[in-house]
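Appendix B. Raw example, untouched.
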Amino acid sequence: EPYEGEKDYCGYPIYKDEQLRTYIGLALDKKQQLLAHCNGDAAAEQYVSQFEKELALRKDKDIHRAVMVHAQLVQKEQLHRMAEIGMIPSFFVAHTYYWGDLHLKNFGEKRGSQISPVKDAIGYDMKYTFHQDSPVIPPDMMKTVSCAVNRITRKGRSIGENQKISVLEALKAITKYGAYQYFEEQEKGSIACGKYADIVVLEQNPLEVPKEQLDQTKVRMTITETEV
């Protein structure tokens, strides 16, 4: 659908379908992970549909943990199809705070409130991650966790009450699912015998502090492979 106030303008694709499918086929042939930026719902549709068409011609259905980066306006039905083929959404969920008011203006309340639909992804039992696109915004993961949990815009508006998630669900996105996205789940992402001791020590327990204070949580110490 067009932007609010526009008659026909819906954005534009960078690649034609045939070009994108060629790149997808190349990645699958080389057994390489493909990560593609898809901000709009049409971009998401192009990425998913071309993957589906390419997979339909192959016996091997392994997409090597392909990632949809941003997945800003991905629709629930598209997430369902992503889940079916094993595609991972990496949400720039901090958009809810930094540009949430602008999204509501550009897309209207119905569409704008559903940006970064993490809760829908959880409903399909998907693995999902968060990112910040630094230096677009600071690489502050606890701010991002807060955005996913609270979904409050700069102007203080609630944006997508139905897409709010728990603190634990948000922490999974930046720990165990992040490791999974990069094929490192055997070495990182959770605390277990045999894994690297890659740990951050926070000044307060994010599972216990008021949700409104999550973005104030500071890192006291970082440990990488047992070294402080």
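End of appendix B.
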